[in-house]
Amino acid sequence: MITDCYDIKTEPVINIKDFYGEPKHITDICLIIFSIDIHNHLLNTYQCEKIGILSSCNGDITIYKMNYKGRYIAFYLTGIGSALASAFCYEAHWQTGATKFIMFGSCGSLDREKTEGKFIIPTESYRGEGCSYYFAEPADYIEIKNSKKLSAIFEKLNIPYVLGKVWTTDSMIRETVGLVEKRRKEGCIAVEMELAGVQALCDFYGFELYDFLESGDVLESSGYDIEGLHGANHNLGKLYIALETALFL
């Protein structure tokens, strides 16, 4: 059972040091980016320095460093899904020294009225994926620890937001009517694919995670509305909110 996977009594067989050598200490803040457009905007707008590589047999992902208003910030284009995003987060920490991660992406709204025109700051995430069970004791939900701290930053920046539970899933195409209604009844206002795993990993290793979302598509009993998804995926506004947030950390 997946709920038996939290083992802290024995040591890992595989050590990240075997792949990347000794850990580096370059900067303490790192952006986790999902949009190729946002990623390319940073490369085209700022002077960016290559500081690491997330290496695998299907291709490498470069970790960059840039300066924003006097603060050095690392960033990389992450993989989609809880397992990949979590693994990349730890590998990025090892290669940069970052312990504060700002993750921002799109999500599906489960409550159009609550999320429309506002960013979403998750308070808890339903663990509908697999990765989190390797890093945290079994439970239905995981607390998103820095939601209050992030909401305070949003207040200072005068950014509209809503706090609420979200649902992390491993399979977008298996978000059935029954599961959507079940999560909605539990108070979830959005669904995404990374947060529970990344939060569990950050808790396990003592990192700080600051996560916010922008709803694009809407999942309702009456059907599926995809109209806003592309804009939510690639909205540059999220990037500058993340960069301004980094200045408060």
Structure report:
- There is one protein chain.
- The protein is of the alpha/beta class and 249 residues long.
- The chain has a single domain (22-248), classed as Nucleoside phosphorylase domain (Rossmann fold).
- Helix content is 33%, strand content 32%.
- The chain is built from nine helices and eleven strands.
- The chain has a five-stranded mixed beta barrel with strand order 5-9-8-6-10, surrounded by four helices.
- Helix 3 (82-96) runs parallel beside helix 7 (195-205) and helix 5 (147-157) crosses helix 9 (236-248).
- The mean pLDDT is 96.
From the structure above, extract its key features.
11 strands; alpha/beta; 5-stranded mixed beta barrel; 249 residues
Topology diagram in text:
Blueprint: H1 17-20, E1 29-33, H2 36-45, E2 49-54, E3 61-68, E4 71-77, H3 82-96, E5 100-109, H4 112-115, E6 119-128, E7 141-143, H5 147-157, E8 161-169, H6 177-185, E9 188-192, H7 195-205, E10 208-220, E11 223-225, H8 229-234, H9 236-248
Parallel strand pairs: 1-4, 1-5, 5-10, 6-8, 8-9
Antiparallel strand pairs: 2-3, 3-4, 5-9, 6-7, 6-10, 10-11
Structure in a nutshell:
With 249 residues, the protein is α/β, with parallel strands linked by helices.
CATH-level-2 architecture: 3-Layer(aba) Sandwich
Q: How many domains make up the coordinates?
A: 1
Distance between the termini: 38 Å
| Class by SSE composition | alpha/beta
| CATH hierarchy, class | Alpha Beta
- Compressed to H and E, one letter per element, the order equals HEHEEEHEHEEHEHEHEEHH
Largest sheet: 5 strands, mixed, barrel
Helix content: 25-40%
Question: Would you tell me which CATH topology applies?
Answer: Rossmann fold
Determine the number of helices (DSSP H or I, runs of at least 4 residues).
9
